[in-house]
Amino acid sequence: MGSASFEFLGFSAAVILVLNLAARSVLWRQAVLLVASIAFLSFFSHAPQAWLPLVAFLACGYASLRAMQSGTGKAGYAPILIGLIFAYVWLKKYTFLPEPLFLSFSYVTLGLSYVFFRVLHVVIDAHDGLIAEPVGVVSYLNYTLNFTTFVSGPIQRYQDFASMQLSPTPPPLDVVVAGEALERIIIGFFKVNVLSLLLSMLQTRALNTLPVDGGFAVNLSKGIVIAAVYPLYLYFNFSGYIDIVIGVARFLRIRLPENFNRPFSADNFLNFWSRWHITLSEWLKTYVYNPLLMTLMRRFPSPRVEPFLGVLAFFVTFFLIGVWHGRTSVFLFFGVLQGLGVSVNKLYQVLMAKRMGRKRYRAWANNGVYNSFARGLTFTWFTFTLLWFWSNWQQLGFLWNRLGFPVIVAVWAAIFLGSSVVLAGWEWLRSGVLSLRWGGQPVLLSRYVRTVWGTALAVLAVATAMLLSVPAPDVVYKAF
Amino acid sequence: MKSATSLPNSGRDLKHRWWATLPARDLVLLPLLSLSTIAVMFSFAEMASRHFWPDPQFDTCVIWEGPIGPHMQPNCVSYERVPESPSIRNVYNACGYRSLAACGPKPAGTIRIAVLGSSAAEALLVPMDETYAELAARHLQDLCHCSVEVQEIAAPLSSPYNSLERVDEALRLQPDAVLFMLTPMDLEALLYEGADAKKWARSVKGGGVGANTGIYKRLQIALLSSRTALVLEHYFFQNPDVYARFYLLYGDKADFLRQPFTRAWEQRFQDLDYITGRMAARLNAAGVPLFVAAAPSRADASLMASSKRSRAIDPYAWGDRIRGIAAAHRAHYVDLLRAFGETPHSDSFCFVVDGHLNADAQPLISRALVHALLAADIPAFSSCRAKNRSS
């Protein structure tokens, strides 16, 4: 069952109805969410054996959590963390481990990455005393297996989850909240089922019709479509899924954290990662970047090297983000490019601030023209790194051979210039449209306009799903 | 006044009345806005659909009244189209048959086949030179080295009873064989006789809006008969699984696909047995062999193509029952269902919404018909049989 399918919406609607029959009862909400999550998982495999690794991983996680909370496991903190990380790497079959080490039977790894982040988070926070209340088995299972976030996040903190799920006064659900949640679901459904589907078709078509000897103009246009359409597709696919689950969860009296904040408006790569897959970036910032930086600063306690330690910590953190996405050398390279992107960006900021002075540098960075090109460069770099996300070495070789060096250079130059202009135009249009106000509020954000807009998107999404008559596209991040 | 974009206060408890966060007028206004949006979008979609999908053209040569049911005016030419099809030119000969050959006395050395049935038998919406009848005639002509012609007595919405009424007319053509082609819809019509039959035919033709039709029903019919709905259905039902799943939501109409047959369908098979028996008796007495064919509907073809068929669903069962009826009356059976079942993607041989067999289906029917004609021990085809074997 895809998370952007009619089946998922039907399933969610049934769970929402049942849960809200007695939403004031914590016990009822806990029971309904657990049963719904188990029912949701059963769609992926009916074979008990296929679930054994996940069950074992969850059990280890829970035992570790309880050991940290009771204080009995504090001495074994580091081995426990290493053990959990190894278990994850082993179950995900990372290719640097020897093949005979892996389990020989087929098992479900869907959602394992996100379960891993949640488990590691509760164990670390319990060790640091940040989770005061003892975590019960049902709360733990609901937190790790919650069907709205199981497949691809967002990664919520346990404390935030528990503050709503275990509270006798959960977030209220009135007509405005319901309307906004429904609007989120519709927008998400439209993004995944219409925009991402059409963009994916566009990119696939360009890839499949790349001529052997197409000439400069044809190859340039195809190259631009192949490279530049993918980030848009990925954004609509993943953020659409997030919109859907945030909307569904809100009906279940849970507020999920946002995972996207207009990432293509970012004017540098560091800023981009604070707007794209936000909960993953935050997780890594909390549990990798901060501890690593603190360790490095303790090891090299010099104010002169401190900014450069930040550069190094950024590289390591975002290299790990890349590596997390996949098990092969392509993703290793993807990680290197992410790490390079943020660390070079940070280094540039440090050096420019040193050279120009913080005030002048800030003023310069806020210049409109500079800003537009910086936005274009950010988009172009992200688009470039994604080549190692959606393809493999063989496909990259194919593209290199078909397009040739001059066309490839022209493609990236065109993407840089084009995205600078288009994104600047988009920002200008957006701020212009939002400046149209009535009664002190932007007209486009009034509930009347949003009702019309939401209805139109719903009609278009349903009609497109019916017209194209193809299954709902899978969420790309489901694979990670 | 509360602002239009304000978010709810997270501190409120559950005792709060869920609707009170919106001004009362908005509880009416917002749903109305939503409905108006749908109406405006639908209007635009309808205009666009009507622009790109042309209006249907109805056959102006059809005479609906009379004891023999629907039939065609002699020497008449008409154009016919559904939005899914091109415009088809129909030419009816001096007897009112949709046939390229004249219907006068059979010329010496000519093999003549008469066809009884309804729209599928007539190959409705298929260009006349591409119909299974014309293809079969040409194929037989090549095999038999003599003139072969097919006279289409069949007419759209003819019930099997109407076909029975026209057996004598068929015999006057001195045919060498008579083909009686049936579809599930023809059998469905069997429960309706006299005034009911006309009512049924009207409902199939035009949606059945009468003076006593209620507002809800009228609205439903208007929506379903809109061009937008047709365009949506056309794309939605491209997938055979989707089409089959929806079709099976019908009750009696789809019960010919379910096993065991319902009482209503058993009754229909009994009626068909009676009709086939009377037809075969008259034809056998005149020494003319009768061939009975069961042509698939799109639901049949979709289920044949579908891998998700339950055991209670059998798209071949009604054909097998007709095979038994034919055998009981010494008629020959033309197994079109299995011919379709053995052909990949045979669901695409039908107009998606209209459901009639399209031009792509005609070669398949033609081959099955020629095969059945040659396999039967009929003197008129003996020379063709020998040549077919040697070739």
Brief rundown of the structure:
The complex is a heterodimer of chains A (480) and B (391). Chain A is an all-alpha fold.
Give the overall silhouette of chain B: elongated
Average pLDDT of chain A, to the nearest integer? Answer: 92
Order of helices and strands of chain B: HEEEEEHHEHHEHHHHHHEHHEHHH
- Terminal-residue CA separation of chain A: 17 Å
Number of DSSP helical runs of chain B: 16
Instruction: Give the overall shape of chain A.
Output: globular
Task: Provide the number of structural domains of chain A.
Answer: 3
Helix content of chain A: over 70%
The Rg value of chain A, from CA coordinates, equals 24 Å
The whole-number mean of residue pLDDT values of chain B reads 86
Strand order of the largest sheet of chain A: 1-2
Biggest interchain interface, per-side counts: A-B, 34 and 35 residues
The total strand number of chain A stands at: 2
* Structure annotation, total helices of chain A: 18
Give Rg of chain B in angstroms: 26 Å
| Beta content of chain A | under 5%
Query: Describe the biggest sheet of chain A?
Result: 2 strands, antiparallel
Helical content class of chain B: 40-55%
